[in-house]
Design goal:
With 309 residues, this protein is α+β, with helices and mostly antiparallel strands. The chain is globular, with a radius of gyration of 26 Å. The protein starts with 31 loop residues before the first helix and ends in a 6-residue tail after the last strand.
């Protein structure tokens, strides 16, 4: 039966129904440390160094007799810590033709890809800040920096039998830090997989509460815990921490004792054009930086808790 013209017989004539809204749900906004750690003095070379000082608290009394000559003991010497800078980049390359055609949303194609590349770079910086491994590098082999987890070497505990994380566990972690350092440097951030943050929410005590995320660049309400030691601890669920069975990791950190240092002059994240070798548009976002751990003795690393509620 003839019908003139309908959608079934004229598909080539129809403009597709295409919504000009694009929801980007990539998990690249969860970059707590890259957004919140302080920026240290610039690194002047690939091997960045700084001094540490830690003197143990007195555990006994050495009384002096009347009229005694003064005995001069050896004084505690500073030690030196190091980390290597790591080079990370996030390139963008579009054919000239593709770069000339606007996206569905009407936005410039190159600008959209540059914005996405910058988010990828920040995500990679975050992963390196948490999980990076130190490597000196060589010709043809990239340098690597030690991330937060590998910087912590003193207060490290591997739990046996995969216990559930409890309120006692949290207070034990805070006490580990308190026992090791002065009261003004006790850990103040618990970075953990989200299942551990959910455990904290079930403690059923008035010592846990939510506060408005006004500090620095947090965008959501933040749960805090008033520990029995007296330190208020911010609970941060972090996507880059290991959360699998037997290897779940929890970090108790003194946030202001970690910094990011960028290579002098050229290390801050920035856009660089590249020599054109063909019919394309593009370049690269690039950075060179390292993690500075001003004193790892204030921070705690524990692994091996259960990864179920």
């Amino acid at each position: 039966m003839a019908f003139g013209k309908h959608t079934y017989s004229s598909t080539n004539e129809l403009r597709e129904s295409l919504l000009d809204i694009l929801k980007d749900i990539s998990p690249n906004e969860d970059n707590y440390f890259t957004s919140n750690l302080g920026k240290g003095t610039p690194a002047l070379q690939a091997l960045h160094q700084w001094n540490l000082f830690h003197e143990a608290r007195a555990t006994s009394v050495d009384a002096e007799i009347e009229g005694a000559e003064t005995d001069y003991p050896d004084l505690q010497a500073e030690t030196r810590s190091t980390n290597y800078t790591v080079i990370l980049d996030s390139p963008v390359k579009l054919s000239r033709t593709r770069a000339s055609i606007a996206n569905v949303t009407g936005e410039d194609a190159v600008s959209v890809e540059k914005e996405r590349a910058l988010r990828r770079l920040k995500s990679e910086m975050e992963y390196a800040t948490v999980n990076g491994t130190s490597a000196v590098g060589s010709s043809g082999v990239a340098r690597g920096m030690a991330g937060i987890e590998r910087c912590i070497s003193t207060l490290v505990t591997q739990m046996s039998a995969m216990p559930s994380f409890s309120e006692t566990s949290l207070n034990d972690i805070v006490q580990d830090s308190w026992d090791s350092v002065g009261a003004s440097y006790v850990m103040d951030v618990l970075a953990c997989p989200v299942v551990i943050k959910r455990r904290v929410a079930t403690f059923g005590t008035n010592l846990t509460r939510n506060v408005q995320a006004e500090d620095k660049r947090l965008t959501r309400e933040v749960r805090v815990y008033d520990s029995e030691v007296g330190q208020t601890v911010k609970i941060i669920a972090h996507k880059d921490l290991r959360s699998t069975t037997t290897s779940l990791v929890i970090l108790g950190l003194r946030e202001d004792l970690f910094e990011q240092s960028f290579l002098v002059d050229s290390g801050e994240p920035h856009w660089e054009e590249r020599a054109k070798t063909g019919d394309w548009e593009g370049g690269v976002y690039i950075t060179e930086f390292t993690l500075v751990s001003l004193n790892e003795k204030a921070s705690v690393r524990r692994t091996g808790y259960s990864n179920v509620l």
